[in-house]
Amino acid sequence: MHAPENLLADCGSCFGLCCVALPFARSSDFAVDKAAGEPCRNLLEDSRCGIHSTLRKKGFPGCTVYDCFGAGQKVSRSMFEGRDWRQQPSNSSEMFAVFPIMRDVHELLWYLADARDRTSTAPLHNRIDREYDELDALTSATPEIVMSVDVSALRARVNDVLLDASDLVRADVAGKKKNYRGRDMIGAKLAGADLRGASLRGTYLIGADLRGADLRLADVIGADLRGADLRGADLRGSIFATQFQINAARGDRATQLPESLTRPSHWA
Prior knowledge:
Elements: H1 61-65, H2 71-79, H3 92-116, H4 125-138, H5 143-147, H6 151-170, H7 243-248
């Protein structure tokens, strides 16, 4: 997949929306509690993070994992035309309400772009294009329209074509494919496992040992890879993989990723 530029986060073009609009609770991911709409204590006046280079060391690994799929700059620069919530507080409530919805829409666009980029999904390209175009138009709508979106219904509708796309892509792997969809596989021992073409949709793989596993053409949409050990694993061609998932996992230089994703700086 060649990642569309508009779906890649550009923090320098955003007003730090993920650091303000979203809540977080004191945990292994965040050192403090923060309410939605409350600026993070580490956010500087120029929208940069004051501890960006030491986030993990200072107890904020959750910040290094998060990915907005480009929703931040879309809301900041396009929808609100560069009007900072600090300078025009009257914009803030709308901006903070729109941002998480826009993030969900951009995530769905990411999945559709992945599906469209594959030759095996050719029979679905017209359906995929229609869904993509409709969602893309929504990202240019007014804040009122975006805030009225039923995200759950939208996800359910788009999921229909994503499931069909997954079936076509995974059919390229010969033989019977493993199906772990939605299963609790927390801490599972899967080192060296042949998971080519497997369904790992919504699978809980927190802390799983996937060292050297073959995940080529596996469907990983919604798979929870927090702390999963991907050292030496092969994820080339895996379906619907996101930077968010990769950031949350552990890997090394031997981990092979889809071309649309980048190796996290905190990996060995």
